[in-house]
Amino acid sequence: MAASGAGEAGDLRGGVDDVIVAGAGLIGTSIALALREHGVRVRLTDPDPGSLRLAAELGAGEPVDPAAPGAPADVAVIAAPPAAIPGVLRDLQDRGAAHVYTDAASVKSSVVAEAERLGCDLATFVPGHPMGGREKQGPSAARSDLFLGRSWALCPTGKADPLAVAAVTRLARMCGAEPVTLEAAAHDRAVALVSHAPHVAASAVAARLLGGDETALALAGQGVRDVTRIAAGDPGLWLEILRHNPAPVAGVLEEISADLAEAATALRGGTPGEPAVHGLLSRGRRGRDRIPGKHGAARVPEYAVLPVVIPDEPNALGRLFAAAGEAGINIEDVRIDHSPGLPVGVAQLSVLPGALGPLARALAERGFSVHA
Ligand SMILES: NC(=O)c1ccc[n+]([C@@H]2O[C@H](COP(=O)([O-])OP(=O)(O)OC[C@H]3O[C@@H](n4cnc5c(N)ncnc54)[C@H](O)[C@@H]3O)[C@@H](O)[C@H]2O)c1
Ligand SMILES: O=C(O)C(=O)C[C@]1(C(=O)O)C=C[C@@H](O)C=C1
């Protein structure tokens, strides 16, 4: 969603012209891509050189050394895993890397408490949480439109400078999101209900599938795919998120468990228990109706996946497939991650695990930019 003119883009930027994104993964690169569409200068840092290189190649910004980021940016966004954020904030603030700081962590109270403990400046730190995401990681899954129409929680402490809040509000709006301001504890209770407990519940449903035989799994339709999509997320990141929000998530899970237990007991009891089951299904339907919007994404099969950067031009995919064919490798599936308006996209080639190395070598030899 590029702005239509330099003046208009400048108006929306409102002084947020130069941003540092620390953490060039899914969320950091998505934020960077969205900001680039508004002409914002973006400087990227990430301890993983591969992620940094890919994010830069996707057009998300210029890689910089976090120890020498250059002149202070208008805003620094920290899009690292939650536990790393307070330390990165303290480091960036010590270096005077930006005038205003925000983060993207899925939890807020623990991040704020640790930032305070580390002596971070809370006047310039506006904790944030974009409510858009995917069940995938890394810059190759990034999309400039990831936050379009989503809420973006802002949890400024009582010490926050209103000008800092205004700058982060503008940044969220440039990403196409709607800022929602609330206290950190209220945020954590809210996301326990709408994000964290649902993730665990989806994992519980998906974990049952491990006991299903091939015939049962062959019958899997869209229903189970919808219910389990988020269970494909990274267990490491999710454990970290849950650890930082334990009590609110446990509370919701206990309520879900009670509903499920009651339904199971009622079903075991036959017809007399039916009203309880009907009641749960009806409440579920009414609860679902209260959700104002919904993500949609395809499930990705579990092959080995090779990301290859491709130019946005006729027959780019044709050449890619021809090269794989010449190497005698069968591509099982392909998915294109592409932000509208960008000159390049990422083709995610799914192959049998044993074919990954040979395919990477064959494509690299033929001049493709391969990110194995
Ligand atoms: N995945 C989602 O759907 C989602 C949605 C909203 C918010 N978030 C939050 O966004 C943050 C990033 O998650 P993600 O999904 O982009 O994960 P990701 O794994 O795709 O990216 C995280 C990136 O942070 C980098 N990193 C690690 N330590 C760092 C450090 N000290 N300094 C700078 N970068 C560092 C990693 O190398 C990696 O590239 C997390 O705090 C997460 O809670 C995730
Ligand atoms: O759509 C997804 O894949 C997500 O899980 C995104 C989602 C969510 O629960 O809505 C996940 C974690 C975040 O902190 C924010 C957004």
Structure in words:
This protein is of the alpha/beta class and 372 residues long. It folds into 3 domains: 6-182, Rossmann fold; 188-289, Orthogonal Bundle (6-phosphogluconate dehydrogenase C-terminal fold); 304-370, ACT domain (Alpha-Beta Plaits, 2-Layer Sandwich), CATH 3.30.70. Helices cover 45% and strands 16% of the residues. Strands 3-2-1-4-5-6 form a 6-stranded parallel β-sheet, sandwiched between helices. Strands 11-12-10-13 form a 4-stranded antiparallel β-sheet, covered by helices on one side. It has a 3-stranded mixed β-sheet with strand order 7-8-9, covered by helices on one side. Strand 5, helix 5 and strand 6 form a beta-alpha-beta unit. The radius of gyration is 23 Å and the shape is globular. Residues 106, 131, 133-135, 195, 230, 295 line the site of prephenic acid.
Describe the secondary-structure layout.
Blueprint: H1 6-13, E1 18-22, H2 26-36, E2 41-45, H3 49-57, E3 62-63, E4 73-78, H4 85-95, E5 98-103, H5 109-117, E6 125-126, E7 128-130, E8 151-154, H6 162-174, E9 178-181, H7 184-208, H8 214-218, H9 222-228, H10 235-243, H11 246-268, H12 274-289, E10 304-311, H13 316-326, E11 333-337, E12 344-351, H14 356-365, E13 369-370
Helix pairs in contact: 4-5, 7-11, 11-12
Bound molecules: nicotinamide-adenine-dinucleotide (NAD) and prephenic acid.
